[in-house]
Design a protein that fits this description.
The complex is a heterodimer. By secondary structure, chain A is mostly helical. Chain A contains 13 helices and no strands. Chain A has 2 domains: 34-79, no CATH class; 94-325, MetI-like (MetI-like fold, Orthogonal Bundle), CATH 1.10.3720. Chain A has helices at residues 2-28, 33-42, 49-59, 66-79, 93-128, 133-147, 150-164, 184-221, 224-231, 236-263, 268-273, 279-288, 292-320. In chain A, α1 packs antiparallel against α13 (292-320). The longest helix of chain A has 38 residues, at 184-221. In chain A, 44% of the residues are buried. By secondary structure, chain B is an alpha+beta fold. Chain B has a domain at 274-509: Roll (Dipeptide-binding Protein, domain 3), CATH 3.10.105. Helices cover 29% and strands 20% of the residues of chain B. Chain B is built from 15 helices and 23 strands. Chain B has helices at residues 3-23, 120-132, 166-171, 178-181, 238-243, 256-263, 292-301, 304-312, 347-356, 385-399, 412-421, 437-445, 467-478, 482-499, 538-543, and strands spanning 34-35, 41-46, 77-79, 86-88, 91-98, 101-106, 145-151, 154-159, 201-207, 210-215, 229-233, 248-250, 268-271, 274-282, 360-362, 365-367, 375-379, 404-408, 426-431, 503-509, 512-515, 519-520, 547-548. In chain B, strands 1, 2, 9, 10, 11, 12, 13 and 21 form an 8-stranded mixed β-sheet that branches. Chain B has a 5-stranded mixed β-sheet with strand order 18-17-19-14-20, with helices on both faces. In chain B, β1 and β2 form a beta hairpin. Classes of the chains: A mainly alpha, B alpha+beta. At the A-B interface, α2, α3, α5, α8 and α12 of A face α1, α5 and α11 of B. Chain B: InterPro entries: Peptide/Ni-bd, SBP_5, SBP_5_dom. Chain B: Pfam families: SBP_bac_5.
Chain lengths: 326, 550
């Protein structure tokens, strides 16, 4: 219990630091929201002085001095009121986030879980049968695939599976004429559209889980208690899963906590490539447009989820490995 | 993990796989426009991009409106900003009885798409709305208008001063219906989800990934509108545009002949006409950029066509130092300017100018009197790769004379801030582009936009000051006589040519892709009646000029 409380106190302290950083960092970026909006418009040609003035009045500048802004920011954070987005004026930040979040949570979230489970299991198998094809094939493929950057794999998949072969749609989260509902038809349509981005994330992240699990597992397999278990004539699978894997999974579990927390941040590059309306795309829009309210909401969401996920992992650690509870 | 859990995981995966395959049957893909079985015509357009999906905002004064809001709402007069030509629209004509009054004679028989009549009161209401809400005033009519009154089917606008160029700015205002907008609580945050306008189209079905515009059957020139339905998807990637058979899209495509045209050589065409001038703007508050000989040296040192070719892959021409967009504005051009105002590359002349400014070549380097290397800093926005290509070419060409060029690339927002507050040495920017001499030249060099360094300016970013130019601009503002207007425009070109408030490089392009498969009559180099752009008012000219392909 004291362990959990200590961790909780640390969580609150880190949260405050993160929230404050979240306030400061966007304001260190050069240029105002109006500058960013004008820059966006000027890509289509000159922006007349009248438009520049109208945008300045429309977006205005944040009210008051930094301290007042900070106080009202803290108040907004506590009441979860993030105001109106600059980029998507006059839309509410909360509406934008609510619209983008489900897409990311389902697509990126599911894939992260699948990749973790699949990668860890393959890693266990590879370590158990090390030296055979069951080790070399997944390890080689895994390190090969994870060496590619996300967006490069995404572009390749987009081009071949979407464009050349035409198996899957190349952009969006659902068909052009579909209206989001919970009908079977729409869910099928959404899954069909999620296939390519999901495949991209799966392929590029699987390797890390495989390699991580395999390497720790091999170290664990050399421990005395494993030899002892084998000498006692326990079945191979029992030794691998109950004795070796349970201990070897700890580093992977930490990684999983981080990855799960990071899910709400979306998968920026993949969402960009596939025009997927998730949080990553929204974040990209917010940052390139100096959209303080939207950025603050998104960064806050990301930091809080990472911190909470880490907190939960640490608690789980305490259960899995009694030594950490000291 | 035990055996049963393995089985569960496998089952879950299999279920997901089945769902994915089941989904394969569901999708509806958009295909190109064309003639449907029931005889209606449909046009697939790339006029508006989602980010990545569409927000339903058809408020014509919102800076985040759907581009096609201007296919629903119409202005009094449409101006082709390439040539400056005006086409009367909701106003049949307008006149200026004196320099501080404009009278618009409105068209009869125009109705809103809900059946109500369009009246002079709607126009008065619209101007009052913009005066009350400067956030919505994207054309800046507020600074020109003192008051507006209706007189039968005429609208009389009293200008805030003698202001001839103001008339055409006011005339381009999109008019909204009083009977619906009078009840709007806050027009600034109003998203106008169900727009009612006078224009050729009304909103059809709207989803976040695609919407349609449907022909307004009661439109006042309905017989001129060929397409019954416009289909606008949210994602218009280059792959989509080429593959799905768009009828009209606005997109720069590299190697357009081998991508867009090859996809359907019989029908696919493109037109990439010249837009506003892309120029190097020197900071007149800093040495040596305030030195005329120095600026002349730079202008003479550059081969602008080579820069244009490098930046825009040969699709645009070098720009005239007159500040005009050529050939569209040819009739305004001062015939006395040599070579249509294009400053030719001439290394000897450049060296002579630099010598006059105090710089000489020494050991392959351009140095000042103290033997210090001459270094120029040019600011250009990060990520605008075409401009960067152009700047690299500038760097190479100036490097050949021994001048060192440092290219600074801040993020676009920071670039805007530096340009507007005057914190740069030389900045790459856009000048002109409205087709109206008063607006273009005052934005280029007028005292009206002059601000001290550190204060945000919205024009004249180089902080250029010329009493002569200001006198001409002031006169142009109050001159009703066409012949005198033309003379003043020519004198302003001479100042731009001789004083170099900016160093013209090349014309920014407008990127129009058209297909003649279903519709003909698109604007082209032979018939430049409108810019190919898909936003603002000129699309109305295109949508009312097309014919169904036979």
């Amino acid at each position: 219990m004291r362990y959990a409380l200590r961790k909780l106190g640390l969580l609150l302290l880190t949260l405050w630091a993160a929230v404050t950083l979240n306030f400061v960092l966007p304001r260190l970026m050069p240029g105002s929201p109006a500058d960013a909006a004008i820059a966006r418009l000027s890509q289509n040609g000159p922006v007349s002085p009248a438009v520049q003035r109208a945008i300045e009045v429309q977006l205005g500048l944040p009210d008051g001095n930094l301290w007042d802004q900070y106080v009202s920011y803290l108040h907004n954070v506590l009441t979860l009121d993030f105001g109106v987005s600059y980029t998507f004026f006059p839309q509410q930040v909360s509406e934008l986030v609510a619209a983008a979040l489900p897409w990311t949570l389902v697509m990126v979230g599911l894939v992260t879980v699948v990749a973790f489970v699949l990668g860890t299991l393959i890693g266990v198998g590879a370590a158990w049968r090390r030296g055979t094809w069951m080790d070399s094939v997944p390890t080689m493929t895994g390190s090969f695939l994870s060496a590619f950057p996300y967006f490069w794999t995404a572009l390749l998949i987009l081009f071949f599976a979407g464009y050349v072969a035409g198996w899957f749609p190349t952009s969006g989260a659902y068909s052009a004429t579909a209206v989001p509902t919970f009908s079977a038809e729409f869910v099928g349509d959404a899954l069909y559209h999620a296939a390519l981005p999901a495949l991209t994330i799966l392929l590029t992240s699987l390797g890390g889980w495989i390699l991580g699990m395999r390497n720790t597992m091999i170290t664990t397999l050399g421990e005395d208690y494993v030899t002892f278990a084998e000498a006692n004539g326990l079945r191979g699978r029992t030794v691998a899963l109950r004795y070796a894997a349970r201990n070897a999974i700890l580093p992977n579990l930490t990684g999983f906590g981080m990855a799960l927390g990071g899910v709400v941040g979306g998968s920026l590059l993949v969402e960009q490539v596939f025009n997927y309306p998730g949080v990553g795309y929204l974040l990209f829009n917010a940052v390139t447009n100096q959209d303080f309210p939207l950025m603050q909401a998104l960064f806050l969401m990301i930091t809080v989820s990472v911190l909470v996920a880490n907190f939960l992992v640490e608690i789980l650690y305490g259960v899995l490995d009694p030594r950490t509870r000291r | 993990m035990t055996r049963s859990r393995w089985t569960q995981a496998a089952t879950a995966l299999a279920t997901a796989a089945v769902l994915v395959t089941a989904g394969c049957a569901a999708p509806v893909q958009t295909s190109g426009g064309g003639n449907a079985a029931d005889g209606t015509t449909s046009m697939l357009i790339g006029a508006d991009n989602g980010s990545p999906t569409f927000e339903r905002n058809f408020n014509p004064y919102s800076s985040n409106k759907r581009n096609t809001a201007s296919y629903i709402y119409e202005p009094l007069v449409i101006v082709n900003e390439m040539s400056g030509d005006e086409t009367p629209w909701l106003a049949e004509s307008y006149e200026q009885p004196d320099a501080s009054t404009v009278v618009f004679h409105l068209r009869d028989g125009v109705t809103w798409s809900d059946g109500e009549d369009f009246t002079a009161d709607d126009v008065v209401f619209t101007f009052d709305l913009l005066l009350q809400h400067p956030q919505l005033d994207l054309r800046g009519v507020g600074e020109h208008i003192a008051s507006v009154e209706a007189d039968g089917s005429d609208v009389i606008v009293h200008l805030s001063s003698e202001d001839v160029p103001g008339a055409v700015i006011i005339a381009q205002t999109m008019i909204v219906p009083e009977h619906l907008w009078a009840d709007v609580d806050d027009p600034v945050t109003f998203t106008n989800e169900d727009p009612v306008g006078t224009g050729p189209y009304t909103l059809g079905e709207f989803t976040p990934n695609q919407y349609t515009l449907v022909k307004n059957e009661t439109y006042w020139q309905a017989d001129k509108v060929a397409a019954d339905r416009l289909v606008q998807p949210a994602a218009n990637s280059e792959l989509d545009i080429v593959n799905k058979g768009y009828d009209w899209a606005y997109a720069f495509m590299s190697d357009v002949e081998d991508t867009w045209v090859t996809a359907d050589p019989e029908h696919n065409t493109y037109w990439y006409p010249a837009g506003a001038t892309i120029a190097l703007i020197p900071n007149m508050t800093k040495a040596p950029y305030d030195n005329l000989d120095f600026r002349k040296g730079i202008a003479a040192a550059l081969d602008k066509q080579a820069i244009a070719d490098k930046a825009e892959q040969g699709y645009v021409d070098q720009a005239s130092q007159s500040g005009l967009m050529l050939p569209a504005q040819e009739k305004l051009l001062d015939p006395d300017l040599p070579n249509q105002g294009v400053v030719e590359q001439d290394a000897d002349a450049a060296l002579a100018h630099f010598a006059a400014a105090g710089y000489t070549q020494s050991g392959g380097k351009m140095v000042d009197a103290n033997g210090q290397q001459l270094t120029i800093r040019i600011t250009t926005p990060n990520g605008w790769s075409d401009w960067l290509q152009g700047v690299q070419q500038v760097k190479t060409q100036l490097g050949a004379l021994g001048i060192e060029v440092e290219v600074v690339q801040p993020q676009p927002a920071a670039y805007q801030r530096e340009m507007r507050s005057g914190e740069f040495d030389m900045v790459m920017g856009t000048v002109g582009g409205t087709g109206q001499p008063y607006q273009d030249f005052s934005g280029m060099m007028g005292a009206r936009f002059y601000q001290d360094v550190g204060t945000t300016a919205s024009g004249n970013f180089g902080r250029f000051r010329s009493p002569e130019a200001d006198a001409l601009l002031d006169e142009l503002k109050v001159t009703v006589d066409d012949a005198r207007q033309a003379e003043i425009a020519q004198e302003l070109q001479t100042i731009a040519y001789e004083q170099l408030p900016m160093i013209s490089l090349f014309y920014g392009g407008s990127w129009g892709l058209f297909s003649t498969k279903s519709f003909t009559g698109w604007p082209s180099a032979d018939d430049p009646y409108a810019s190919p752009k898909t936003w603002d008012q000129t699309p109305l000219l295109i949508l009312t000029s097309l014919e169904p392909a036979s």
